[in-house]
Design brief:
Strand order of the largest sheet: 2-9-8-4-6
CATH superfamily of the largest domain: Immunoglobulins
Shape: flat
CATH topology of the largest domain: Immunoglobulin-like
CATH architecture of the largest domain: Sandwich
Number of strands: 25
Structural class: mainly beta
Order of helices and strands: HEEEEEEEEEEEEEEEEEEEEEEEEE
CATH class of the largest domain: Mainly Beta
Largest sheet: 5 strands, mixed
Number of helices: 1
Distance between the termini: 100 Å
Length: 330
């Protein structure tokens, strides 16, 4: 009986002496109060390890509207770490509080709940709130106009506007007199966006950032979207004639579609190729705007693979020619 008691006592002492982490948090909640849309408030939650083994921290879920900015995943004994959380004011919606569970390897705690509160409000109004461009390259310079104002009556001053791309220019001026919108109170500022004729082909996306002196919302965000089309589009943009054959000698082997997206009529003035035996015939479908180009390949050329370029001449000074890669096997 005596030896059993000693064994139990020894086992308990060994268990008590085993290194273990111990989480200590000085605070578990924070209220930002009222914050402006577009601001990026952040708060640190200090975490101390008062145990004798490394403290491991894990966060597996962050609710919509909250950002995990920093997480010290391992904190040594007698050391401190931090969980830094921020409000994503664009995604906050109507939520006023967010809760995050920090999982730990501290058996006494298991997990720690952190709470963040904020009242997200828009102090600036942009009318209309976004700009969309559907633009054809080399078209006439054009754009959109927007009014920025303070919804709380603050004496607003716009300090500048930064475009997300260099081919859209953003200018700022205050509206006076009969330029002002009659249903908007306080100072009014016009943000004018102008797209360059040489804007590159492709999608447009991002935000124009409007810098202001408003104490609670120093920036307003004007969404920009759309697409820049090429002046001409050739479909398909490249050709592989391998395995293709015309049904008869007078029939084309393939037809390309060519479209002028501009408002002014243009012409396809000629077609040539550096591939022996490849002939191209331009046929108008909608004069000045749509054509199809019939390709014929003579049977008398050298056998084997070929590769080259079909060149279409246009009447445009900005796009004088279109080049279509062509390959195949004769």
């Amino acid at each position: 009986m005596f030896s059993v008691a000693i064994l139990v006592c020894t086992t308990l002492m060994a268990a008590q002496a085993a290194p273990a982490p111990q989480l200590t948090a000085d605070k578990t909640s924070h209220d930002f109060g009222t914050v402006g849309l577009g601001t990026t408030p952040e708060i640190d939650f200090p975490i101390r390890n008062t145990g004798s083994a490394p403290l491991e921290l894990t966060i597996t879920y962050v609710p919509h509207g909250l950002r995990l900015v920093k997480l010290d995943k391992s904190i040594a004994p007698a050391a401190s770490g931090v969980v830094r959380l921020g409000i994503d004011t664009f995604q906050a919606g109507n939520a006023a509080a967010w809760h995050v569970n920090v999982l730990t390897n501290d058996a006494a705690h298991g997990s720690l709940e952190l709470t963040v509160r904020a009242d997200v409000r828009a102090f600036l109004a942009v009318t209309p709130p976004s700009a969309r461009f559907t633009f054809v390259q080399y078209g006439p310079e054009g754009g959109t106009a927007h009014v920025v104002s303070a919804v709380d009556g603050s004496p607003l001053e716009v300090l500048g506007a930064d475009s997300p791309v260099d081919y859209i220019r953003a200018t700022v001026r205050e509206l006076k007199g009969n330029e002002r919108q009659p249903d908007i109170e306080g100072r009014q500022w016009q943000i004018k966006l102008t797209i360059s004729p040489t804007a590159p082909v492709g999608p447009i996306g991002g935000y124009v950032v409007v810098r202001t002196n408003h104490p609670q919302q120093p920036r307003a965000f004007l969404g920009v979207s759309g697409f820049v089309r090429p002046l001409f589009a050739v479909t398909p943009p490249s050709v592989n004639l391998t395995g293709m054959a015309a049904s008869s000698p007078d029939q084309p082997i393939l037809a390309l579609n060519v479209k002028n997206f501009g408002s002014d009529p243009l012409a396809l003035t000629g077609a040539s190729s550096d591939i022996a035996g490849l002939d191209a015939k331009i046929i108008p479908d909608d004069a000045g705007h749509v054509w199809h180009v019939e390709l014929r390949l003579s049977a008398g050329g050298a056998k084997g693979p070929f590769k080259g370029t079909l060149t279409l001449k246009t009447s445009s000074k900005n796009v004088p020619e279109l080049q279509v890669p062509v390959q195949g096997v004769r």
